[in-house]
Amino acid sequence: MITQKTFTQMFLIGCAFMKPLIALVVDDSILVRNTIKEGIKSCGGVAVFQAANGQDAVEVYKQHRPDIVFLDIVMPLRGGLEALVDIKSFDPDAKVIIVSGVATHSHVKRAIRAGATDFVQKPWEQSRLASIIEQAKQQRRR
Q1: For labeling, which of 8, 50, 73, 132 is most exposed (least CB within 10 Å)?
Q2: What does the pLDDT look like over 10-24, one tens digit per residue?
């Protein structure tokens, strides 16, 4: 027989599994941010925050602790590589995906050395974003 207390505990555990994945999309172009956001949200079960530059990205990261960050490299005020370093120093386990159309080989190498998890070239394929989101969901369940 299941008691009320046991039922409540089981319910709360189940609710924890339903919590959406939290993503942060950082790009100075509102069009790119919204396109990535819509692509991510179409995967289902994802809440998305946005930032327009690296400086805001670090603040939003610290406030919301997203499960995954999609980060452009070239932005005003503070670039993506600098933001990546700040985010990783705040949270060494942060999962940061670099999304850029102007990244050189040296940018990519610096980003990977700084702790980026992956790199997506603009323009991207929706299937690539979906794969990254699904992988983040699977890793979160572990």
Answers
A1: 8
A2: 444 444 456 899 999
